[in-house]
Amino acid sequence: MPRTLTAASIQQQLADGLGVHPGLSVIAHVSLEALGPVEGGAEAVAAAITAAAGTVVMPAFTYQTQVIPQTGPPNNALVYGSGDTLNGRADIFRADLPVHPDCGSVAETLRRHPATLRSLHPILSFVAQGPQARSVLASQTSHNPLGPIAWLEAHDGAVLLMGLDQRHNFSLHLAEQRAGRRTFTRWALTVDAIEELHGIPGCMEGFNAVWPELMPFTTVAQIGMARCELIPLRLLLAYVEERLCADPNFMLCDKPGCLSCRAREVWR
């Protein structure tokens, strides 16, 4: 039987194994299941991360607000008119809407904490807790959904992956954007209207291609049953942007039916 983790033991291992400290802001992606038994579950993991780091940011995405129109811009990785069933089930975005299950139970737990703030992007909102939470979230606008990642980069922040691989490292999208890779338009239900949103990134299934190349500046530790990594954002984004400029098809997935990756493919 694996040893049961506690909030205190996770906090200690984040500090000792990965070098997380109260002066460091992080964007965290966490798989509770990958960690193994945790006394207190998602609440304990969220408490450990917020105690170990300074400002903690997590995705609080709400893909469930999206609707598909009948028509729209071309080459947008979307089959227009195909969303009748999806549109009927779509939720209206509100500040207290639960995060999509893809973001994980720890992100939802952090969202519910009374000290947590949330941005108001109808699809790609973030939650944050800590001394710089308000500032980092204020950097996001409807036209700049990746603003919080750029803020973290400018403030020497890092990506924290706990039991997840690079396919969950949302920050890589900022490197894609800077390298000139196409983004998409999506639509979401809000209280007042169907809002058109630009700068939405695409598929992440090919992101593990860069994983071995990030090892020289990645700190790795095992916490419970999970492989955990800390990657400085400045180094990560600079390296991946340069890599993509040299090879524009790098990190695209190889699935023939992936509309997102095929729309961004460069033919030479």
Helix content: 25-40%
Quick check: average pLDDT? 97
Number of domains: 1
* H and E string: HEHHEEHHEEHHEHEEEEHH
Q: SS-based structural class?
A: alpha+beta
Largest sheet: 7 strands, mixed
Task: Give the C-alpha Rg.
Answer: 18 Å
Major β-sheet strand ordering: 4-5-2-1-6-10-9
Shape: globular
The number of helical segments is 10
Overall description:
It is a single chain. The chain is of the alpha+beta class and 268 residues long. The protein has one domain. Helices cover 31% and strands 18% of the residues. It has helices at residues 7-18, 32-35, 41-52, 84-89, 105-112, 133-138, 147-154, 172-178, 233-246, 259-264; strands at residues 26-30, 56-59, 66-67, 117-118, 126-129, 158-162, 184-189, 194-200, 219-223, 226-232. It has a 7-stranded mixed sheet. Strands 3-7-8 form a 3-stranded antiparallel sheet, with no helix packed on it. Helix 1 (7-18) packs across helix 3 (41-52), helix 3 packs across helix 5 (105-112) and helix 8 (172-178) crosses helix 9. The N and C termini lie far apart (53 Å). The mean pLDDT is 97.
